[in-house]
Amino acid sequence: MRLDDLREAMVGKHAPAERPFDRETFFEEFRRKEFEDGDVAERFHENSRLTPTAREKLNRSSSVFSDGPATEAHARIAPDYAERERIDLPDPDLSTDREFGELLARRESVRSFSGEAVSQATLSKLLWSACGVTRQDPESGKEFRTHPSAGAMFPVETYVGLLDGEDLDAGLYYYHPSAHALRVLRTGESVADELREAFAGDAIDVANAGAVVALTGAFWRSKAKYGPRGYRYTLLEAGHVAQNVYLACSAFGLGCVGVGGFYDDALNDALDVDGVNEAATYALVVGDPGR
């Protein structure tokens, strides 16, 4: 099925019916909410609650996964883009003279950037800090990363939109944590332009940023084990990864801002994900802070 057909089918299945209030603000909608059924967010929250009944089903699901089908869930979204050129990143230099308390105190959202290019060395320490592999169990092969993940399903995938590279071409790259390497997906200034256009408004100086770290959710990798609650877990995981990026930027003197206000279809298209089985959940614009 073509991507456009898949999206049209999903929208037709799940989109709310057109209402006479669509020109209202969300605040006005909230003020009269007691006269309507719950909106889609409330329905999702209720349907993803953990109850004793849901817990029993979750326990059965977990026991099935212990027999090996987790591999099938992981395979729903190819995690390595193995056919693409691989660029091994240098070992991350994580040295910093800042204490942990100072990192927390200095963590802030930076919305303007100097236009300075981003190097492989910088990407190496940012990406490893975000979601790098810290160790591996010698018997099971299970990986541990710098962020928590429900059931170690790791549904969050990390892409780098390099807007201005010092020793890499501008373009789109996939970060492969197990190898601490990048896969080259697409290069060229046009790719960087697509990424810039995915962000709404002009409150953030994307034009002068060095890179966009885009986080997607491969939702079924978590939902296959946890059901609807797996969607919650995927969003929480994206937040864990994003905070690691923030603290790394604080440690290494970089600017960073987390962005939820992106155009979904535009960012999904730029990342070449279908927006249904794998979709953008969060993005971080990073670079040398503007002075």
Write the layout of secondary structure elements.
Layout: H1 3-14, H2 26-31, H3 40-47, H4 52-65, H5 70-74, E1 86-88, H6 100-106, H7 120-131, E2 133-136, E3 143-145, E4 156-162, E5 171-176, E6 181-187, H8 189-196, E7 211-217, H9 219-226, H10 229-252, E8 255-259, H11 264-271, E9 279-287
Antiparallel strand pairs: 1-6, 2-3, 4-5, 4-7, 5-6, 7-9, 8-9
Helix pairs in contact: 7-10, 9-10
User: What CATH architecture do you see?
Assistant: 3-Layer(aba) Sandwich
Query: What is CATH's topology name?
Result: NADH Oxidase
Number of structural units classed as domains: 1
Distance N terminus to C terminus? Answer: 48 Å
State the fourth-level CATH superfamily: NADH Oxidase
Shape: globular
Strand % is: 15-25%
Class from helix and strand fractions: alpha+beta
Q: How many DSSP H or I helices?
A: 11
Average pLDDT number: 85
CATH class: Alpha Beta
Reading the helices and strands in chain order gives HHHHHEHHEEEEEHEHHEHE
How many strands in all? 9
**Strand arrangement, largest sheet?**
1-6-5-4-7-9-8
Radius of gyration from CA coordinates: 20 Å
Specify the biggest β-sheet: 7 strands, antiparallel
Helix residue percentage: 25-40%
- Low-pLDDT parts are none
How would you explain this protein's 3D organization?
The structure is a single chain. By secondary structure, the protein is of the alpha+beta class. It has a single domain, classed as NADH Oxidase, CATH 3.40.109. The chain has eleven helices and nine strands. It has helices spanning 3-14, 26-31, 40-47, 52-65, 70-74, 100-106, 120-131, 189-196, 219-226, 229-252, 264-271; strands at 86-88, 133-136, 143-145, 156-162, 171-176, 181-187, 211-217, 255-259, 279-287. The strands form two sheets. A seven-stranded antiparallel sheet has the order 1-6-5-4-7-9-8, with helices on both faces. A two-stranded antiparallel ribbon has the order 2-3. Helix 7 packs across helix 10 (229-252). The chain is globular and about 55 Å long.
